[in-house]
Amino acid sequence: MATDEETPRAIIERLLGANPDGAVDTSIDVLELLANNLVGIIGEQGFDTLLFRSAHRVNLDFPWLMYDPRNKPADPEFLQLRECFEGQPSERAGRASTLLLTTLVDILGVLIGEHMTMLIVQPALQRASIRNNSKEQDNG
Amino acid sequence: MGKRVHIGKLVTGVPGFDELLGGGVPELSFNLIAGTPGSGKTTLAHQIMFALASPQRRALFFTVLGEPPLKMLRYQQQFSFFDFDKLESSIRFVNLAADMVDGNFDRVIARIIDEVQEYSPSLVFVDSFRSVVQAAPGGEQGFSDLQYFIQQLGMQMTSWQATTFLIGEYLQPDTESGPVFTVADGILWLSQLVRGDSMVRKMQVVKMRGASQKLGSHTFRIDSDGVHVFPRAMAQAASAPPAMFDSARLSTGVAALDAMMGGGVPAGYSLLVAGPTGSGKTILAAEFLAEGARRGEHGIIAAFEKSPNQLLSYQLNQLVSSGMVGVINTRALDLSIDEILHELVAMIERTQARRVVIDSLSGFELALSAIFRDDYREALYRLVAILTAKGVTVLMTAELEDRYDVLRFSSHGNGFLADAIINQRYVEIAGSFRRIISVIKLRGSDHSKEMRFYDIVDGATVIGEKVAGYLGVVKGTPQAARSGRASRRPARKPLRLS
């Protein structure tokens, strides 16, 4: 469960680290929730630009992650992104997906400050935490 | 119970802004904030929003095309009015860019209504509305669609009891026409006037239904606290006619000068001390304030010739440090008289000051933005009228051109502004400069007609004997009068009075 003191980056690392084998699924889940929040404020184009910038950064460390959502048909479930992770070992895919999300929130933090970023992304991350906990309870 | 509907006013708290609107923004009004890029429209909109938004009065801020929302959030949070707590409880940002595709107004209005239904805001902002207008298809059909859209938007927002602000880039109020200008209940126009290196911001309430707004253009500034408006103050008619011969007199701090003025300066008068450089005007001004402090009267100085750190004498610095004399900041670039007047009035009301010094009028004029110098005399008249109407006694210093053969009583014909004029000048006697002081004018009161020698001794004005036994003193080079017969030389130049 997210605590008030955790930064968005710490929450993301905790969520994705909780189940390394399912990190890609969790990251897509978190991305969908973040998109719901962010698109409302900055628009689809704004969100796609941010996501592309983050993917570009990840590509430097993980060249197989080549993802560009701009000017493409709407893909609310990020199927195209999921395809990029297919075939990759779960540990490597997990690191790449963590880097994608943390880069996204880091860029937001640089642009609009950490406090504002937290205000915007916290609801999405809290919902993701709740969903994650439910899944763990179901599996446990 | 009255028959007319009561139109409430939303008091924004934006300094000076509510006064422009006659008390605040009329509730449920549909307003346009227009102006050139960089004129402060988004900042004003945000400042209004953060001032008014609360959990009981929520705000929806729609962004369309124009400044990217992330950039807007980045820059607007630099202002002190940006309240992060309200973002959680009372304010929601929504982007409409995707709904603007192909200029489909039906889709835009549907989205706006959906959001309004869901959030139930009392305040709605759309930035930039101009981008909505520009997305309209061309031709008559496009214009008709736009007109319908704006009417629908206005009607919907009123039905949902929201006060609405549309923000848009427009160039000039008199060249713009369009349905939004007709439908809008209120139009605020923000502009930037540039002359040389000087830039001044102006705001005009072009229209405000249901309110008695202040007419004309008004200066405003944007600083880290946001927008601060300085409404053009008009001299208000006194509720009771002033007494012609008020018995209350204020000492100038120089007893001999008080005697020359028949007992001091009548309270509430404007006093002009005019003289060339180094004649001791500022010293007399400091003595005027010091005398007030001795009597427990607060004073204020607006010093345009010296910075507060260089201020005058140790004596005046002591008065400032003690809190008996307030100092008006005169160092801001591109000053307006209204801004200075607002600061003066605020400080007068805060300290209950009875004495104000403006040192000097020449420095004041130079400190103003070039844009305001054209109507300097008119604005100065308003300033003096407003200050004296508050019962404050105003001492203004004015530098006279160093022409010793020309008798001048005031600079640039400002003498008419003053109820009283003290003239200081130099004369040359036997190869030395001597200072001479005289009371030229004192409305409604007897005063000495004498010219007297004076000097500055240890930072104080010391008035000496009457100038006697000389002729042609006003020409600057007096000659000793011989007993029984005046010694005269032909005048070298005609005497010009001004």
Provide key terms for this protein.
heterodimer; A: 140 residues; mainly alpha; 5 helices; globular; B: 498 residues; alpha/beta; nine-stranded mixed sheet; 14 helices; 24 strands; elongated
Describe it.
The complex is a heterodimer of chains A (140) and B (498). Chain A is 76% helix and 0% strand. Chain A has helices spanning 8-18, 23-61, 79-85, 90-112, 114-139. The mean pLDDT of chain A is 88. Chain B is α/β, with parallel strands linked by helices and 498 residues long. Helix content of chain B is 29%, strand content 27%. Chain B contains 14 helices and 24 strands. A nine-stranded mixed β-sheet of chain B has the order 5-4-6-7-3-8-9-10-11, sandwiched between helices. A nine-stranded mixed β-sheet of chain B has the order 16-15-17-18-14-19-20-21-22, with helices on both faces. The chains are: A mainly alpha (140), B alpha/beta (498). The A-B interface holds A 39-46, 108, 111-113, 115-116, 119 and B 63, 68-71, 73-74, 77, 84, 87-88, 93-98.
Q: What share of residues are in beta strands of chain B? A: 25-35%
Biggest interface between protein chains, with counts per chain?
A-B, 15 and 17 residues
User: Which residues of chain B sit in consecutive blocks of at least 5 with pLDDT less than 50?
Assistant: 237-245
Structural class by helix and strand composition of chain B: alpha/beta
Main β sheet profile of chain B: 9 strands, mixed
Helix-residue proportion of chain B:
25-40%
Largest sheet, strands/sense/barrel of chain A:
none
- Overall, the morphology of chain A is globular
> How do the strands line up in the largest sheet of chain B?
5-4-6-7-3-8-9-10-11
Measured distance between first and last alpha carbons of chain B = 62 Å
Helical stretch tally of chain A? 5
Helix-strand string of chain A: HHHHH
Query: What overall geometry of chain B do the principal axes of the alpha carbons give?
Result: elongated
Stretches of chain A where pLDDT is under 50 for at least 5 consecutive residues are none
**Cα-atom radius of gyration of chain A:** 14 Å
